[in-house]
Specification:
With 441 residues, the chain is mainly alpha-helical. The protein has helices at 2-5, 11-22, 25-37, 41-69, 73-80, 86-116, 127-138, 141-160, 163-190, 196-203, 212-225, 232-237, 246-274, 285-295, 300-334, 338-358, 373-400, 402-410, 416-440. The structure holds phenylalanine.
């Protein structure tokens, strides 16, 4: 079975691929604007708290389910327990469709900015001008749809290549380069005049700004950024060798993902303040402030395009994990062949994404609950599907198949970590998520 499905070649390769899934637009596009929107410092503390308690425990659980079952999300819940649990798997596959549909639209923006930052237009630190450029771009349906299509085509091509050839190889050498560039950008942003106000905003908590929405935003961001709650890591876990210790692997992925988010925060928010932009400006935050930072760097005209190219690649490694989840389902459960399955699923996702691509242009006025289509998809996925998936995974691992999972993760040893982990999944994680979801409504 495992031969036929493919397996990751090494522990290093697996960590990089799982980190490749986790690290993406969630860290560099979503995290800074959600932090800015949620008031900065207090959000940061809530976020970090949730990542290392709930997030880490659910991640170990999700990897364990995948590895124990060696199946896609639907097949995994079905073989380990079956019954109504199988629907948790379906919910994950559904979330895969929903998330990738708009993720690819934003991924398209990063591709477009790879060329755009080559042009003279962006050789300016005037956030008014950069903001206008951004709004013009996202409201042009031809461009947003074309770049969305391009992003999906590349994602489909990588997933067609299969697990070892496609994902692992791409992740291996690209992530470290992105990391080094982020550090360099951070140094530039932090030394801009006026940047310190951004650092204060980002790290000093203002608890008076915390409400149910802030807590909810922190939880959703944690799930989104760690790729949790929909079976992407479950699917990757199904390709992981039995030799690897899951808590170690999960700690690596969690820490790498968090360091990239922190770097992005220490890059974007100081730049926002240095260039007199609004931290609560929303989804355009990174796209407006980064070009301004490039314009203040020697060689920024080269740095900019290279950075956006790497950001596109980081987005691709995440997109690949989303498509892989859906494709693994089609392969395992519907006996589909990898190539046609990837193509069919990719096409469907492309079409679901079209309204998102139009949602800031021709369809900007079509709103439901005060949100445009893209925001609605993001809300549905990050604020509802992923946290619900998280509760289900916690209860499944903690109660429904706990002995099997303890064996899978700790080889049946009753260590302190094993007890703490089980306790997190049994009580703390479900209770906290339910409480946050309810108070969010
Ligand atoms: N974690 C990815 C990011 O931060 C997005 C993602 C979410 C990927 C859920 C897979 C599953 O960009």
């Amino acid at each position: 079975m495992s031969k036929h499905r493919g397996e990751f070649g090494s522990r290093f390769g697996f960590i990089l691929a799982a980190a490749g899934s986790a690290i993406g637009l969630g860290n560099i596009w979503r995290f800074p604007y959600v932090a800015g929107d949620s008031g900065g410092g207090a959000f940061l503390i809530l976020y970090l708290g949730m990542v290392f308690t709930i997030g880490f425990s659910v991640m170990v659980g999700e990897l364990a389910i995948g590895r124990a079952a060696r199946r896609n999300p639907v097949g995994a819940f079905a073989t380990l327990k079956g019954g109504a649990w199988t629907y948790v798997g379906y919910m994950g596959v559904l979330a895969g469709f929903v998330i990738l549909s708009y993720y690819s639209v934003i991924g398209g923006w990063t591709l477009a900015y790879t060329w755009a930052t080559l042009g003279p237009l962006l050789d300016s630190s005037d956030t008014g001008k950069l903001g206008a450029y951004f709004s013009d771009f996202i409201s042009d349906p031809t461009q947003t749809i074309a770049y969305h299509a391009l992003f999906m085509v590349i994602t489909i091509a990588i997933v067609m290549g299969g697990i070892e050839k496609g994902i692992e190889r791409a992740a291996k050498f690209l992530m470290p380069v992105l990391f080094v560039m982020l550090v360099a950008l951070c140094i530039r942003a932090l030394t801009l005049p006026g940047a310190w106000a951004g650092v204060e905003f980002f790290v000093i908590p203002d608890w008076s700004r915390v409400n149910a929405d802030t807590v909810n935003a922190a939880l959703s961001q944690a799930f989104f950024s760690l790729s949790l709650g929909m079976g992407a890591l479950l699917t990757y876990g199904s390709y992981l060798s039995r030799r690897e210790r899951l808590p170690g692997v999960a700690m690596w992925v969690t820490s790498l993902d968090t360091s990239i988010a922190l770097l992005a925060g220490f890059l974007i928010l100081p730049a926002v303040f240095a260039f007199g932009y609004d931290p609560a400006a929303g989804p355009g935050l990174t796209f407006v402030t980064l070009p301004a930072v490039f314009s203040k760097m020697p060689g920024g005209g080269l740095f900019g395009p290279v950075f956006f190219a790497l950001l596109s690649l980081a987005a691709l490694t995440s997109a690949v994990s989303l498509l892989e989840t859906v494709v693994a389902y089609a392969i395992d459960e519907k006996s589909a062949a990898r190539k046609p399955a990837t193509l069919a699923m990719g096409l469907v996702i492309f079409f679901i994404g079209v309204p998102s691509a139009l949602s800031m242009g021709p369809w900007a006025d079509i709103k439901l609950f005060g949100k445009n289509f893209l925001d609605l998809m993001d809300y549905l996925a990050s604020n509802l599907l992923l946290p619900f998936g998280g509760i289900a995974i916690a209860i499944f691992v903690g109660w429904a198949v706990s002995q099997k999972m303890l064996d899978e993760v700790f080889g049946g040893r009753q260590t302190l970590l094993a007890k703490a982990w089980l306790w997190m999944l049994r009580t703390v994680a479900p209770a906290a998520i339910i409480w946050i979801l309810i108070s969010g409504l």
